Amino acid sequence: MTQFISLNLVSAAIAFFLDDIFGDPRTGLHPVVLMGRINRFLEKYLYRSGFAGGMLLTVLSAMFWTGLGAALLYFAYGFHIYAFVLLNSVIIYTAVSAKSMKQHAMKVYEPLAGGDLPSARRELSMIVSRDTENMDGAAVVKSAVESVSENYTDGVLSPLFFSVFGGGAGALFFKAASTLDSMIGYRNEKYVSFGKFAARLDDVLNFIPARLSVVIIALSAPFCGMSMKNTLKTVLKYRLAHDSPNSAHSMSAFAGAMSLRLGGPVSYFGKVKDKPFIGEGTGEPEPERIKEAVRLFETAAVFAVALCVAVYFVLRYYGGCPLCA
User: Fold this and answer.
1) What transmembrane ranges does the database entry give (predicted)?
2) Cα dihedral 141, 144, 150, 153 sign
3) What is the CB neighbour count within 10 angstroms for residue 79?
4) What residue segments make up the domains of the chain, in order of their start?
């Protein structure tokens, strides 16, 4: 088991390096794209079964992608250990979305900083499910920062967590569940029943990573000129201020580190949802706060990878890495 984790740690570090260079590959063969297409196809036949149909879709998707990843890695390992590491790294890379999140956030920042609010709203709509048409500049900034903070868990830490303990197969398992949650995990009239199982599974899978994110964001804050103390203080007060058992952890960590108030009423599908505020910042947030959030996101991502590298060398020291034999 120690050797398996060692290989996964190496693969995870390589995967993040690949993501930093290439970002999300623009191809229809990307696993997430294929997941989405297959999910929509099966939804047509399973939707009428309500909760049971949604549960079956979630289980089928998770089993298929996990099994496919495990089978490919099994054959790669049988061929050569380096083939395993290479394939493992590539699979994990497809589950990570650090660079794409930074790019999307900056696409919101650039027109907003230039005074082009309509374009900023349009770019924001690419990364959030809330209504953006009537947002003012401050709401756009807060929404972008919230998206960055939540995606630190969904797009960085959770894929990393499951890849360390399950390799590429574990990363695909998480991504299958996460993709379905983003597609059907809504509490609206259409998906409140059909998407409930996918949403609850996503909550369970993100439970530990969301709490780990607090520690890593707090440790990263001083490297961005932000306060570790205020990060932890804000998390302790606001970590449960969200319908999701996980989202407020990374969000409150960002709010505390940046001394920014997030949350508040938001419109989804034409209906305003009165969400609680998170954080105690004052004043209207300026566009530059998006850049600050991206910097904190990037620093925390590097910190997480550095932690993987550190654990790898500990295992190497104790003779648990077959690459070093």
Assistant:
1) 45-65, 71-96, 296-315
2) negative
3) 10
4) 2-324
d(CA 5, CA 122): 42
The closest alpha carbon to 164, from 89, 82, 218, 58, belongs to 89
Cα–Cα distance, 290 to 152 (Å, whole number): 14
Q: What is the spatial distance between Cα 231 and Cα 242, in angstroms, rounded to a whole number? A: 17
Model-level pTM greater than 0.85? yes
Alpha helices (H) along 192-246: 196-220, 228-238
Residue with token string 């997941």: 35
Residue type at 184 in one-letter notation: I
Q: How far apart (Å, rounded) are the C-alpha atoms in residues 159 and 174?
A: 7
Q: CA-CA distance, 230 to 136, in Å (whole number)?
A: 28
How far apart CA 286 and CA 138 sit, in angstroms, is 7
The pLDDT tens digits for 95-120 are 999 999 999 999 999 999 999 999 99
